[in-house]
Design a protein that fits this description.
Layout lengths: L19 H4 L9 H4 L3 H17 L9 H6 L4 E2 L11 H4 L8 H23 L7 H25 L22 H18 L11 H14 L3 H12 L31 H5 L13 E5 L16 H5 L26 H5 L7 E2 L1 H5 L51 H4 L17 E5 H14 L3 H14 L10 H12 L5 H15 L14 H9 L1 H5 L2 E2 L2 E2 L13 H6 L30
Antiparallel strand pairs: 1-3, 2-4, 5-6
Helix pairs in contact: 3-6, 3-7, 6-7, 7-8, 7-9, 8-9, 9-10, 9-16, 10-16, 16-17, 16-18
């Protein structure tokens, strides 16, 4: 019998109760590397799968993974009240918990992608390919493997590094140091940027995306000069530029919305419209995952849950009479709020600090009428209410998930399915765009104490938004600017943890690696910005609570126990970490 079983952590195969017939592959349908990776077409098929995996964290029908990166950070929380939603991380983010579903999802998605990347890395060299095609295939595989390891080491810390294809059941993985993994993926990306193509089809990885990821790797390793140089290749190379004038199209439905100023559309509106992100004239895009309605290979024609996850449950709000005064049944009639706002469920509620960023600068286009829907604009829309058309009364709308501002240009889309209670839509999504690269370079300058250049890069982003320019920046201001510019786009927790580790590694501001689980910049930043965790506000049956060791997420006990012949360390600070052994300091060494 021939069985091909990959035991890659999140893809656990429980052998008990399975017959040999169940394990025997069907030769007519079995997708095996022996059958697939025999030529360039096979490699391209795996690359397509890897590109699709990039979309997965933003392409869920429910609970987009990316929002866990924000909700376990300094800017937002999940406002859903059920007991199975992680609020109290001390109790609900543990090696055995299930409420912290993003921890599980990211681990499994990352190692699935690493497995596929390793197929190419191991098999492409033995396929008869021209040297240029081989190098491009390896470059794309290195990008994807490096992308996910960059995420893993900033989500979980030290994790196992798998350097090659796993061709048989394997239960003896060992943990590698974060530093060793970062050094390896940096080496890999230095190769990749030399061989990635400059121009690709939308959704594929190009050379600029490689430089983008390499910039992050250099930052993580505290190679700030290299980070500046790599980012500058893209910023100053002439091919990419921040969008400063209007482009693309606006869906006609938006032109009928009474909540929008029909003369107020601007470049930041255009930048985030789903049909504009992949346009050739969008010189700001660097890597955009593809997801269009009624297109083969999309997430599904229901669309993804972005509008549902990010929007408040405004349609349940009560008026001063104490009765529900909003409805989700006014599609095309009355105030038509359900079409203009969507039917949200309150899974990403902004902190007061994030809300107040809007107040700093009335000229900032990111908070214009069409790009930001403020709390003052919510009104009772049920014609049967005595308060029809009047603003929400804060005395009676007290559920935190029913009433909060949203970045309208990023989160409200037209639902193509004809749903009269719209909550989903298909859309391309940014993975990398140039504005973030400016802010990464600003950060590298700041680490070098080159404040003028750091400030200039932040001001380049602010100038495009017509915001007032600032005289000086520090690391906190740079991350405030990331919140203004990149809200809901980037992996927030990952980048905060990256900075926390650099602070500890350099011994800045009293931080150190030795006491990182009890004192770190990530936790201090959260406590300075996210009032839900500071005040331990009660929502449903749990308070919001975060502790310093939540700078990293726990590795699930099921994943550790399945690895019965090796040793996967538990993240420090969590139960089980007392049995940790010294992690391997060479990423290419499989065992101690």
């Amino acid at each position: 019998m021939k069985s091909l079983v990959y035991i890659l952590f999140g893809l656990l195969i429980m052998a008990s109760g399975c017959s040999e017939e169940w394990l025997e592959p069907d030769p007519k349908s079995f997708f095996s590397p022996e059958n697939t990776l025999v030529d360039k077409a096979g490699i391209d098929a795996v690359v397509t799968s890897l590109n699709r995996n990039l979309r997965t964290e933003k392409g869920q029908l429910e609970n987009n993974h990316i929002y866990g990166e924000w909700n376990y950070s300094d800017m937002t929380v999940n406002g859903a009240p059920p007991a199975d939603i992680a609020h109290n991380l001390e109790l609900q983010m543990t090696p055995n918990s299930v409420e912290d579903r993003e921890c599980i999802a990211y681990w499994e998605l990352a190692y699935l992608s690493i497995k596929d990347a390793n197929l190419i890395i191991s098999r492409a060299p033995v396929i008869d390919l021209p040297e240029a095609d081989l190098n491009e295939a390896l470059a794309k595989a290195y990008f994807h493997r490096s992308y996910w390891y960059y995420r893993l080491v900033h989500q979980f810390g030290d994790v196992p590094f798998i350097a090659e294809e796993v061709t048989s059941p394997k239960l003896d993985f060992y943990t590698h140091t974060r530093e060793a993994i970062l050094q390896q993926i940096t080496d890999d990306m230095e190769f990749a940027v030399q061989h990635l193509p400059e121009d690709v089809q939308p959704g594929d990885v190009n050379q600029a995306a490689g430089s983008f990821l390499l910039t992050k790797c250099y930052l993580s390793l505290r190679e700030f000069d290299n980070a500046i140089a790599e980012a500058s290749k893209v910023i100053d190379g002439g091919k990419y530029a921040l969008m400063t004038s209007r482009f693309g199209t606006t869906e006609p439905e938006f032109l009928t919305f009474t909540f929008l100023d029909q003369n107020g559309f601007d470049v930041l509106w255009d930048l985030h419209q789903k049909n504009n992100k992949s346009l050739p004239e969008n010189t700001e895009k660097i890597l955009v995952v593809q997801d269009q309605f009624n297109t083969i290979g999309n997430t599904g024609d229901r669309g993804v849950a972005k509008m549902r996850d990010t929007g408040p449950v405004w349609w349940q709000a009560r008026d001063p009479n104490g009765v529900r005064a909003c409805t989700d049944q006014d599609f095309g009639t009355g105030l038509n709020m359900i079409q203009q706002l969507g039917r949200g469920v309150g899974r990403i509620v902004p902190s007061q600090f994030l809300r107040d960023l809007r107040l700093e600068d009335p000229n900032d286009l990111r908070y214009s009428q069409n790009n930001w829907f403020g709390m003052e604009r919510y009104v009772y829309n049920d014609p049967n209410s005595d308060y029809f058309g009047q603003p929400f009364d804060p005395v009676f709308v007290t559920d935190m998930r029913q009433w909060y501002p949203i970045p309208y240009n990023k989160t409200v889309y037209i639902d193509e399915t004809g749903n009269t209670r719209p909550d989903r839509s298909s859309s391309d999504e940014y993975i990398y765009r140039l504005a973030e690269l400016y802010l990464l370079r600003a950060e590298a300058y700041w680490w070098k104490n080159d404040i003028p250049n750091a400030t200039a890069d932040v001001n380049a982003v602010r100038a495009r938004a017509q915001a007032n320019l600032v005289a000086s920046v520090d690391i906190d201001y740079i991350f405030d600017e990331r919140a203004r510019e990149l809200y809901l786009e980037t992996p927030r927790k990952t980048e905060l943890t990256r900075v926390a580790y650099i602070m500890a590694q350099l011994g800045r501001d009293g931080y150190s690696l030795e006491n990182m689980t009890t004192n770190n910049w990530f936790y201090d930043r959260v406590m300075s910005r996210n009032h839900f965790y500071v005040e331990e506000i009660l929502q449903g049956s749990n308070i919001y609570r975060m502790l310093p060791y939540h700078v990293y997420w726990p590795i699930k006990e099921t994943h550790i126990r399945a690895n019965s012949l090796g040793h996967i360390n538990q993240t420090p600070g969590y139960p089980g970490s007392e049995t940790n052994i010294a992690p391997i300091s060479d990423a290419l060494q499989a065992q101690p």
